[in-house]
Amino acid sequence: MNVIKKFFKSFMYAFAGIRAVCSERNFRFHLFAMVVVIIAGFLTGISANEWTILLLAIAAVLSLEMTNSAIERVVDLVTDEFHPLAKRAKDLAAGAVLIAAIFSVIIGLIIFLPKWFEF
Ligand SMILES: Nc1ncnc2c1ncn2[C@@H]1O[C@H](COP(=O)(O)OP(=O)(O)OP(=O)(O)O)[C@@H](O)[C@H]1O
Questions:
Q1: For the chain, what is the mean pLDDT?
Q2: Domain presence at residue 15
Q3: What are the angstrom distances between the C-alpha of 2 and each of 7, 15, 85, 119?
Q4: Structural domain of residue 84, as residue ranges?
Q5: Which residue out of 90, 91, 98 has the highest number of ligand 1 atoms within 8 Å of its CB and is therefore the one to mutate?
Q6: Is 65 a catalytic site residue?
Q7: Cα 28 to averaged position of ligand 1 atoms, centre (Å)
Q8: Which segment of 2-6, 22-26, 73-77, 102-106 scores lowest on mean pLDDT?
Q9: 104 found inside a domain
Q10: Largest CA distance in the chain
Q11: What is the 8-class DSSP label of residue 46?
Q12: Residue 119 has pLDDT above 80, yes or no
């Protein structure tokens, strides 16, 4: 029983994290992009494999954005002064999101462009 309670509590904390990040501008932008891509997927008509790849890309961007946010919070907790390592940590985390976002856009183009322009 205790194990189930603990497991349920962990879920609640995870949902609290998701709720918290939903108030952040960058995450909202990614959520908006996700909705646009999902609508485009339904309107265009893509295969199960294409849905899988698209959803993986979306999950990667959203998860990394949350990780970036977490790293920003921890850095701010450790110091509010300028520190090269603080800058490095935040820039690395932001770079990770950017890489995932760029490759997600490329994946989206590979999936959608041939269907829209029939080549
Ligand atoms: N303590 C610090 N020391 C050195 N550089 C910092 C520090 N805090 C932030 N920076 C630099 O300023 C940039 C912006 O920092 P900030 O904390 O505003 O992040 P952000 O990406 O704008 O986050 P948010 O999503 O909260 O707007 C960082 O990417 C980093 O380059």
A1: 97
A2: no
A3: 9, 20, 41, 58
A4: 25-117
A5: 90
A6: yes
A7: 18
A8: 2-6
A9: yes
A10: 58
A11: -
A12: no
In a domain, 96, yes or no: yes
| Minimal-distance CA residue to ligand 1 atom 30 | 87
Atom of ligand 1 nearest to the CA of 72: 17
Residue whose Cα lies nearest atom 10 of ligand 1: it is 87
Any ligand 1 atom below 6 A from CB of 117: no
Distance of CA 15 from the midpoint of ligand 1 (Å): 25
Cα-trace Rg, the chain:
18
In a domain, 20, yes or no: no
- Looking at the 3D structure of the chain, how many domains does it have? 1
> What pLDDT, in 10s, does the model give residues 55-91?
999 999 999 999 999 999 999 999 999 999 999 999 9
pLDDT at residue number 46: 98
C-alpha–C-alpha distance, residues 119 and 117, integer Å: 6
Q: Are 46 and 54 in contact (CB under 8 A)?
A: yes
Domain of residue 103, CATH code? 1.10.287.3610
Q: What's the ipTM?
A: 0.90
pLDDT score recorded for residue 118: 81
